[in-house]
Amino acid sequence: MSPVVIAVIGVVVLLVVLALAVITRYKVAGPSEAFIITGRRGKKSTDPVTGRTSIDNSGQKVVVGGGVFVIPFVQQKFTLDLSSRQIPVAVRGAVTLRGVKSNLDGVAIVKVGGSEETIRAAAQRFLQQQDGIVRFTQEVLSGALRAIVGRMSVEDIIRDRAAFASQVAEEAEASLSGQGLILDAFQIQDITTEGSYLEDLGRPEAARAKQEADIAEAVARRAAEQARLKAEEEIAIAQRTLYLKQAEIKAQTDEAAAQANAAGPLAEAARQQDILSEQEKVAERQAALTDRELDTKIRKPADAARYQAEQEAEARRIAQVKEAEADAERARLTGEGEKLQRSALAEAVRIEGEAEAAAIAARGTAEAEAMHKKADAFERYGEAAVLQMLVEVLPQVVAKASEPLSAVDKMTVISTDGASQLSRTVTDNVAQGMELLSSTTGVDIAGLLKNLRAGKSGSAPAAPAAPAEVPAQGAKGAASDGKIEITD
Question: Which of the four pLDDT bands, split at 50, 70 and 90, describes residue 238?
Fold first, then answer.
């Protein structure tokens, strides 16, 4: 082999080795990785106060999501995991605000921050022991949990877990960020207490929930029962409608069958009716013919005979009337003689009546003259004539007044005045009769009697003074001297 070829091969091999060396030393960071390239010195700085000199981390190069060439033998690459870590956190026996010991279980999502500062800070503490991030985070969160639980009650933690977790995150954020860690999320998974605090706490709510559940169950059962009853009612209505429809169809079917069955008899009846109608027409025509025959053969001859009889009867009646008129005329002529006889008799009666009337007139004239003479005498004698008339009628008055007593067979007087009451009764009747006569005639009879007594004592004209006698005939038990026998 020629030396040129060997030299070319050597160069190629060298290039290949260099290429491999370059390729193997160029590093590309993953999406959740951060490269910390060390090998350079940091900047030196001096504290002006204390005068102490320190070197910063500027000598470390942080590469996130990119590539970097690590110079062999000069620089060194370290990888820091930036992915999130799910870290369980458990706290036992944490005392709440009301002194209740509680146990809390939660979970936290923690990762290394994405900035160079947080990556450098996390790299300084956890680069060689990255599992320490979990333990460190648990310790920080446990402390924060205990601190927050001590400021809250179990009811508050249960009522608002989100607020509780937020307070825990705020409490632990400062400690975690100082180590280059970021708390993405923190959730409380479970809370328990020692003893039966939570069970007692939830008992009223459980009872209320149970009551509501029972009520809801009863309501649901009632609704189901109502729905079942409604469904049964609808089924019953549907069945009733079906039965009614079936009955209606059956009735229509029966009616159609009956009509079909009755079609034959109806047709026969119609035919019979037509026959009867025709027979009726024939009978009517037969009756009309018979009637015409009767008119021709019987009725008209009978009418003619009746008319002949009527005419004959009328003729006889006229003849009888004529005959009666003749008889009446004869009787009228015969009655003229009787009329003359009755006229003579009436004339005789008239003459007799006139004679009797003349006699009566003469007797009246005589009586009138007597009355005139009597009036003249009364006028001349005045009251004396009147007294004369009174004296004449007084006995009749007394007799009429005592007439009721004459019809007494036996009388018993019951009075404190004894039998003298009877005589006073008669006297009272006479006095009442005199008063009645005075009131009807207008003549003061009592005054006239007084004048008569005064005339007797003085120079009064003489007047007939016939003594008044009281008739006592007809009175059984009455004495002739006018006394009445009184028996007790």
Answer: very high
Q: How far apart are CA 45 and CA 34, in angstroms?
A: 27
Residue 141 in tokens:
């969160």
Token pair, residue 327, equals 């008889």
- Mean of the per-residue pLDDT values for the chain? 81
**What span, in angstroms and rounded, lies between the C-alpha atoms of 454 and 161?**
162
Query: Are 35 and 65 spatial neighbours (Cβ–Cβ below 8 Å)?
Result: no
Q: What is the mean pLDDT of residues 136-158?
A: 90
Residue type, 217: E
More confident residue, 383 or 13: 13
E strands in 30-138: 33-38, 44-46, 53-55, 61-64, 67-69, 76-81, 85-95, 101-112
- Of the candidate ranges 46-55, 225-234, 284-293, 448-457, the one whose mean pLDDT is the lowest: 448-457
Structure tokens at 27: 């590093």
Which of 118-127, 225-234, 453-462 is predicted least confidently? Answer: 453-462
Please say whether the beta carbons of 94 and 53 come within 8 A. Answer: no
The answer to whether 47 and 68 have CB atoms below 8 angstroms apart is no
Taking CA atoms, 445 is separated from 364, 393, 439, 448, 452, in Å, by 30, 12, 10, 5, 10
Q: Is 36 exposed, middle or buried (0-12, 13-18, 19+ CB in 10 A)?
A: buried
**Of 205-219, 225-239, 326-340, highest mean pLDDT:** 225-239
Would you call 72 helix, strand, or coil by DSSP?
coil
Contacts for 92 with CB less than 8 Å, ≥ 6 apart: 103
Q: Are 96 and 157 in contact (CB under 8 A)?
A: yes
Q: Which residues pair with 484 in a beta bridge?
A: 478
The CA distance from 66 to 155, in Å, is 50
HSE (side-chain half, CA atoms, 13 Å) at 8: 4
Contact 35, 79 (CB under 8 A): yes
Residue 57, both tokens: 């981390």
Alpha carbon of 389 to those of 94, 439, 449, 463: distances in Å? 169, 18, 12, 11
End-to-end CA distance of the chain: 226
Please state the rounded mean pLDDT for residues 53-76. Answer: 82
Contact 132, 180 (CB under 8 A): no
Three-state secondary-structure class, residue 268 = helix
Residue 46 CA to residue 20 CA, distance in Å, equals: 43
Q: Would the CA dihedral through 207, 212, 217, 218 be positive or negative?
A: positive
Average pLDDT in the 433-450 region? 69
Decide if 476 contacts 464 (C-beta within 8 A). no
Residue 328: both structure tokens together: 């009446």
Question: How far apart are the C-alpha atoms of 248 and 251, rounded to whole Å?
Answer: 5
Q: CB atoms < 10 A from the CB of 34, how many?
A: 25
Residue 465 scores a pLDDT above 50: no
Judged by DSSP in three states, 101 sits in strand
